[in-house]
Every structure is written in C-alpha cells, then in structure tokens.
C-alpha cells in the first residue's frame, strides 16, 4: 500500500496493511536527521524512516516573503511584525509576533480601514500539478485558523480581552478573516480538482492545564466559523484535519458535532487528555494523529521508553476509527536522533 492508501483506509472503514505514521519536525531537527542518516532530501529521509508522510500544499502569493504552506503565518501579507526567538541555547529559533495591524483598533470601522490581502493575489494555477507529484501521499491543502490569526493581528492579551470587552471588534475581524479564507479555500479546492485529501481547519485553544477560552466563548465567536469552513471542505469531498494543542477535551464533542474527521496532536500529558478516555469516548468517530510525547519522552527519554510509548499508543487507539503515529507536535532540536529512529522502528514492528 502507498502512504495515501494507508491513511485513506481509516476513512473508508477498512484497516491498512500496517500501522501508518507521519513526521512533524522543526527545520533544525529535520536538517540534523538528514545529516545523521545520510539523506540528501526530506523525501529520502521519510523513506529511510518508513514514514507515511502527509504533504502540505497551498497556493503561492507573489508578495509573500515567507515560504510556508500555512497561510495564516504569511506575516508579510497580514501586516504582522515578528522577531526571531532562540531556544535551547541557540539550537533552534522560533518566530514570535510582536505587532499586528489591529493592535490599535477600537471597533468594526477600524477593521474595514486596514489593508487586507486579496484572495485574487494567490496563484492557484499550479496546485493540481503539485498534487500529482505527491499522488502516493496524503495531501493537506490550504490552512485556516481564524482566531489564531486574530490573536497575531491584535496581540494575544488584547484578543482574549476583546471576547469580553469588545465583542463587536471580534465579530467584524473574524467575518473579514473568514471571507478571505473561504475564497482561498474554495479556489484551491477547485484548482486541485479532487486531489486534496484534507483541508486544515484548526486552532490553538488549549494550554497544559485548561482551555485558552471558555466553551461559551468558543460557541459564540469561533465555532460557527469553523463549522462553515468544515462544510466548505466537505462539499468538495475533502476531509478535515483538525489541529488543536493542549487540554482541549471539553471542546472535542463540539468539534465532532461540526464535522472534524481527524484530531491532532493528542498531547496526552495535558489535563483531561488521557489516552484511554479519548479512545473510549471519541474513538468511534475520530481518527487520531500524533500522541507520541515530545515534551518528555522523545526529547529526554531513552529509546526503549519511546518504543514502549508507541506500542502503548497503538494498543490504546486500536479501539478508535484509526490511529496515525506521529509526535505530538513538531519534533524539537533537543530530541536525540536515536529517539526519532526508535519511534519509527516501533511503528514498523507493530501489528495492525
């Protein structure tokens, strides 16, 4: 079976020939793994590790200074200023938003006054050809994270306060963000002509201990927009890949209600995210993706601990609609090469 057919089995009510896996990693660890394992390209690295890699594609924008599939992070287009923040004594670098175009906004009129990207600017023409280059792999096409983007445009503290103090501003901004993205997503799906397996409809709503916003705020400000985009994806025959960090268990029933198909990243060390409970309560309705802890096990454990965790995850999620082994978010630069190798060796030796 191909990587794509292994993933697709779960959504077609079948079982694959073996447990599928995926790879998520920062630039720094990917480059190091390629050096350590003697690989000349990321594609060669995936083959060497035996990864059923999901490929992420999106239309290009000629004005963007960044090169990423994740459209909400094309900061140069959205007017978000960022800074480079090193971590782990310089082993890696993250971008952090420091200023956005809505920082001084007071109401809906200010939303209309700023310069927004035009969906017509994106180049959709080459998407189908790109998909054909990766036709043996599952493909995620385009990304949508509306409140994530609002927080970068507004500043995190102001964005959270707005949910209580300035709901009209939130409504106006979320409506404008959605209108732009719905056009981008529709045009991308039309250009790909059935070759996108998933649309990435996501958020970052969890901390280690609790939700970032209340369920009531989720229902009021965010759930309707996510539901609309999920309906768009499904109307074109695409599935929905939903990423949501942290302790999000209270929202999972509502995410299922509006139609997510796959849940990532399963950070099971966060409060309420125990794997047995997730598999028992939601396994019949979801494919789970991730679940190999990269805060402790992968970063600081021993290879045998990594293998044991992979085996435990496969056992627990065997009762689910499906499970795709992957780190619970990007592998970090502090993760030893031998632990990454151990993770994928454990996948290859597992029984379906």
What does this structure look like?
The protein has 352 residues and is α/β, with parallel strands linked by helices. The protein has a single domain (3-349), classed as Alpha-Beta Barrel (TIM Barrel). Helices cover 44% and strands 14% of the residues. It is built from 15 helices and nine strands. It has helices spanning 3-11, 27-36, 42-49, 75-78, 108-113, 127-133, 146-154, 156-165, 167-192, 215-235, 252-257, 275-282, 297-300, 303-316, 337-349; strands at 55-57, 81-87, 92-99, 139-144, 198-201, 239-243, 262-264, 287-292, 322-327. The chain is globular, with a radius of gyration of 20 Å. The model has no long low-confidence stretch (mean pLDDT 97).
Short description:
The protein has 352 residues and is an alpha/beta fold.
Query: What level of helicity do the residues show?
Result: 40-55%
CATH topology: TIM Barrel
Listing every helix as H and every strand as E from the N terminus to the C terminus, the arrangement reads: HHHEHEEHHEHHHEHEHEHEHHEH
Strand order of the largest sheet: 1-4-5-6-7-8-9
Which structural class is indicated by helix and strand composition?
alpha/beta
Q: What's the level 1 CATH class? A: Alpha Beta
What secondary-structure arrangement, pairings included, does this model have?
Layout: H1 3-11, H2 27-36, H3 42-49, E1 55-57, H4 75-78, E2 81-87, E3 92-99, H5 108-113, H6 127-133, E4 139-144, H7 146-154, H8 156-165, H9 167-192, E5 198-201, H10 215-235, E6 239-243, H11 252-257, E7 262-264, H12 275-282, E8 287-292, H13 297-300, H14 303-316, E9 322-327, H15 337-349
Parallel strand pairs: 1-4, 4-5, 5-6, 6-7, 7-8, 8-9
Antiparallel strand pairs: 2-3
